[in-house]
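Lab notebook, page 48
Experiment: co-folding of the full assembly
Goal: obtain a model of how the components sit together before planning crosslinking
Operator: M.T.
Materials (sequences as entered):
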Amino acid sequence: MSTPPAPTNFIEEIIVEDLESGKHGGRIHTRFPPEPNGYLHIGHAKAITISFEMAKKYGGRTNLRMDDTNPTTEETHYVDMIKNDIKWLGYEWEDEVLYTSDYFPQLYAFAQDLIRKGYAYVDDSTAEEIAEQKGDIGVPGTNSPYRDRSPEENLALFEGMKNGDFPDGSKVLRAKIDMAHPNLLLRDPVLYRIKHEAHHRTGDEWCIYPLYDFAHGQSDSIEKITHSLCSLEFRHHRDLYNWLIEKLEIFPSRQIEFARMNVDYFITSKRRLKLLVDQGVVTGWDDPRLGTLAGMRRKGYPAEAIRNFCVDTGVAKRDNQQEFDLLEFKVREILNRDAHRYMAVLDPVKLVIENYPQGQVETLTIDNNPGDETAGTHEMPFSRELLVEREDFSKEPQGRKYYRLAPGKDVRLKGGYIVHCLGHEEDADGKVTQINCTYYPDSKSGEDTSGVKAKGTLHWVSAEHAVDIEVRQYDKLFTDPQPMNHEDKDFMEFINPDSLVTITAKGEPALGEISEGGQHFQFLRKGYYVSDPDSKPGHPVFNLTVGLKSSWKGKK
RNA sequence: AGACCUAUGGUGUAAUUGGCAACACAGCUGGUUUUGGUCCAGUCGUUCUAGGUUCGAGUCCUAGUAGGUCUACCA
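Observation: model returned without errors.
Model output:
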């Protein structure tokens, strides 16, 4: 066997150790176990990345398993969304999607085994009574009065539970461990509860359902998962995970916990996400302002960028808070490489080239990506009347490092000519209505013999040929990077009122052809944009993915 | 308060397992550029505290401090 790749974090160190010691015959098998009751978000992306990449790196496999043990909250709809999101992220699971619910018969048999061995009992206590029996942190609990029922009686009662002889909440199956254990989870945890409720896959077949602690580890074991990776809050569950594996004498999967990733401006709490959707703060679970996979996809974040972000932020056991800047860097990194450059003027003002022939239209060739020769070119019309960005003109520029339009300045129109700014016209309110220029006929891009030097280059569109495009200017959803970390204030108080500003902009003609979502562009000098699924023929819609980085401190 | 986990620049992650604390992002300077983008160069700044072991400690030991997790018939 060849030597395994060098580990880059503590989990990989464990994997390498296991590989070298020949544990499980050198087999590596991980799993991602979402509960199908909500949408996947950036935190899940981290978990997915860790489990899938780890297996990939060490020649292992990864299962996708729906952890569907609670019929009350789970729906098939979510299963479909989850599968779609994971595929989009770029991962393929082993074989078919697996379901914890497929193991219900096996889990039931495990429970019977536990009962026979004297490690579990049926308890008639109410939920409140069980809570009381738990004791408290640092205070031992008390035994349930039903704790010492015989295995025979327990077996019969448990079967009765399964057969629907008892109403919801009247009985539970509990592990018999230690009511004084310092880990509260080992104070006779509930293993099975009665729920006369239809399950999204097993229908009415069952009226008892296992709880997480009696389903998750057992499912890992059934699938012979070697390394079960989960987040830190499950640390205390590991003691129970191991106890059950030991008592059941089943395949010893190993649980390893890592710190989950937090990202500035993103909320990952299912409850809060739902609140934002229900209250109409955002338009849905796929709103581009949310940290859901569906939202980030709609915002134009490439899957590759999200994967890189998750991988490059590493794996450790301390709480972490990732800066939004890094995520945006990862997004720009991919988009700069891949996105084709087009021109769109967000806040247009007319620019007239006085010495350019009336009615003349030239077709100019624009590089799709100056950093990638293979990306090709596209054409756009140039004419006497153009539209340029209002902020690219100044009546009285401040400072000598001003490269844009101002009286007396020379500026290159990207892919076209250099123009000389003469002045402007304005309305009664002092608002600029037109910029007047002349152009240097021998300064055409690619064949410039004018000798004129223009420090600035601007984007533009031909007024006559430009098309209306709907542009959704997204900004961060919150005004605070960690809106839920304020003890005195609710996170809803930090909603950014300007997180979405919708405008009608002027795009170059080619943008008018866009009629479907998911196409990435760079609007020259403005930012990266993606066409939105709301786009219709004749009505293209673009979402701001991320702005271009700017080192210009003159404005904004 | 019991138990468990964690502590390295502004953020995050490394450090050949006891041997010159590095990489990325962010910030700041400058250069290139038909995007004030990209790219390139430079720069800023770090081992929670106190003891101890050792020729030598971010790493090992002790004590403290700080943060996190745990008392659902949720996962």
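Interpretation: The first helix of chain A runs from residue 10 to 21.
Next step: discuss with group before ordering constructs.
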